[in-house]
Automatic annotation (TrEMBL):
<comment type="function">
    <text>Involved in the heme biosynthesis. Catalyzes the anaerobic oxidative decarboxylation of propionate groups of rings A and B of coproporphyrinogen III to yield the vinyl groups in protoporphyrinogen IX.</text>
</comment>
<dbReference type="InterPro" id="IPR006638">
    <property type="entry name" value="Elp3/MiaA/NifB-like_rSAM"/>
</dbReference>
<keyword id="KW-0004">4Fe-4S</keyword>
<dbReference type="InterPro" id="IPR004558">
    <property type="entry name" value="Coprogen_oxidase_HemN"/>
</dbReference>
<feature type="domain" description="Radical SAM core">
    <location>
        <begin position="45"/>
        <end position="279"/>
    </location>
</feature>
<protein>
    <recommendedName>
        <fullName>Coproporphyrinogen-III oxidase</fullName>
        <ecNumber>1.3.98.3</ecNumber>
    </recommendedName>
</protein>
<feature type="binding site">
    <location>
        <position position="208"/>
    </location>
    <ligand>
        <name>S-adenosyl-L-methionine 2</name>
    </ligand>
</feature>
<dbReference type="InterPro" id="IPR034505">
    <property type="entry name" value="Coproporphyrinogen-III_oxidase"/>
</dbReference>
<dbReference type="GO" id="GO:0051989">
    <property type="term" value="F:coproporphyrinogen dehydrogenase activity"/>
</dbReference>
<feature type="binding site">
    <location>
        <position position="171"/>
    </location>
    <ligand>
        <name>S-adenosyl-L-methionine 2</name>
    </ligand>
</feature>
<keyword id="KW-0560">Oxidoreductase</keyword>
<dbReference type="InterPro" id="IPR007197">
    <property type="entry name" value="rSAM"/>
</dbReference>
<comment type="subunit">
    <text>Monomer.</text>
</comment>
<keyword id="KW-0411">Iron-sulfur</keyword>
<dbReference type="Pfam" id="PF04055">
    <property type="entry name" value="Radical_SAM"/>
</dbReference>
<dbReference type="GO" id="GO:0046872">
    <property type="term" value="F:metal ion binding"/>
</dbReference>
<dbReference type="GO" id="GO:0005737">
    <property type="term" value="C:cytoplasm"/>
</dbReference>
Length: 441
């Protein structure tokens, strides 16, 4: 947004709205949906669709206090082994219910930290995926990694099994901030991790950074964004820290008095955007950046950009198969989520019980809303529908945050930070709920 544009901190930036990585949002998931629903939905798909796979590795070496992920710190590696034995069974079973001639175009390993796996364990997971599914030769295979302690042997194993994109968590390069979030990670460690990945041919590198962390300032956010650009990241994700200590108990260790206020937080978000744009990145949606030649930037330009649980993506698949604890699977008919506790997940899988604990079906009308919200989040515009409330975005129009022409509503440059607020206004379910979500900015 332009530097001199008015800011709507209290009215929009602090409004609690869904992140809309799914529609209906995950807050609508309930326990009456199970594996049988997923299997039935799979029989309603085309015979040979593009498929996407997400593999969750719910383990980390130590807990970062800002963490909002489903992860645990194992006290012995045999817990990881027990989990992987169940994951192996899960991969085979889920492949049996997938469309028979589906082709896997995207595989994403997230966590937790997938680098908690030993090289031979990573190879075994990839081997089982390739044996169970038809993986396209040009599939994108991406892995989220903790740069601390990333070893060359694992990088080698990942490259040999087809990994071609890696995502490194940077967050903030200041030692003071790192101490307060319990993640000490000198810049040289991130650079060394990127070097190891590039040395084995994994040359597409994403980096994540955050704003709104304790002791962060505009200057520190700019230094981090510049350092990331200097390390040659192809994509950068810029996430606002969501402080929810009542939900994520380890966040109680974050000193609240050191958290930036809402206006400062907004300035940090703008500073990250500005610094990355100056460094030559193109803005993708509301929280991603990419080098102009990166496929994500090309997708944003040609209108094929999509959004899923990993954020913005080039992945065109309408079927996402989530494997492992807490993983969410998606198809046009709905979503299912597996048991989030790794031990309970493993026990359910090995005892042949239903490891799906919640989900939600999606009607045709909800699929249409999902598509409109996706257009907004990816292209910053969508069509106005006859069923929309007559005062849809009336305030945002008066504030010059949106404009309506030829039956389409479009966010202006000044309105883009508030895209989730506009999405909530076209979401018929949002207006009738009082659920808590993260703040919009
Ligand atoms: S490495 Fe990532 S997943 Fe693990 S605790 Fe830190 S932020 Fe959470």
């Amino acid at each position: 947004m332009p530097d001199d544009a008015p800011r709507f901190i209290a009215k929009y930036a602090l409004e609690a709205v869904p992140r809309y990585t799914s529609y209906p949002p995950a807050t609508k998931f309930h326990g009456k949906v199970g594996l049988a629903d997923w299997q039935r939905w799979m029989t309603q798909q085309d015979k040979n669709p593009a498929l996407s796979i997400y593999v969750h590795i719910p383990f980390c070496k130590s807990m970062c206090w800002y963490c909002g992920c489903h992860t645990t710190i194992p006290n012995a590696h045999r817990r990881v082994e027990h989990y992987l034995a169940a994951l192996d069974i899960d991969i085979r079973r889920r492949a049996e219910s997938a469309p028979p001639d589906g082709r896997v175009c995207h595989i994403h390993f997230g966590g937790g930290s997938p680098d908690m796996l030993k090289p031979e364990e990573f190879r075994a997971v990839m081997q089982q995926i390739r044996a169970s599914f038809n993986v396209a030769p040009d599939a994108e295979i991406a892995v989220e990694l903790d740069p601390r302690g990333l070893d060359s042997e694992l990088c080698q194993a990942m490259a040999q099994t087809g990994v071609n994109r890696a995502s490194l968590g940077v967050q903030d390069i200041s030692h003071e901030v790192q101490k307060l979030i319990h993640r000490i990670q000198p810049l040289e460690i991130v650079q060394a991790a990127a070097d190891k990945l590039r040395a084995v041919g994994i040359s597409a590198i994403n980096m994540d950074m955050m704003y709104g962390l304790p002791a962060q300032s505009v200057a520190r956010v700019c230094e981090t964004a510049n350092a990331i650009a200097g390390m040659g990241a192809d994509r950068v994700s810029v996430f606002g820290y969501a402080h929810v200590p009542w939900f994520k108990k380890h966040q109680r260790a974050i000193p609240e008095e050191r958290l930036p206020g809402a206006a400062e937080r907004f300035d940090q978000m703008l500073a990250a955007n500005h610094t990355l744009s100056e460094a030559g990145y193109e803005r993708i949606g509301f929280d991603h950046f990419a080098r102009p030649a990166d496929p994500l930037a090309r997708a944003a330009r040609d209108g094929s950009l999509r959004r899923n649980f990993q954020g913005y993506t080039t992945d065109p698949s309408t079927i996402l198969i989530g494997l492992g604890a807490s993983a969410i699977s998606e198809c046009p008919q709905g979503y299912v989520q597996t048991e989030p506790n790794p031990v309970r997940y493993a026990n359910a899988v090995t005892s042949n019980a239903d490891m799906i604990v919640r989900g939600v079906g999606r009607s045709m009308a909800q699929q249409a809303v999902a598509s409109r919200i996706a257009n907004l989040l990816c292209q910053f515009e969508t069509e106005v529908e006859p069923g929309d409330p007559v005062d849809l975005a009336k305030d945002m129009l008066a504030e010059a945050l949106v404009r309506i022409d030829d039956g389409r509503i479009t966010l202006t440059e000044a309105g883009r930070p508030y895209v989730r607020n506009l999405a909530a206004r076209i979401d018929p379910a949002f207006r009738s709920t009082t659920e808590q979500h993260s703040v919009a900015v």
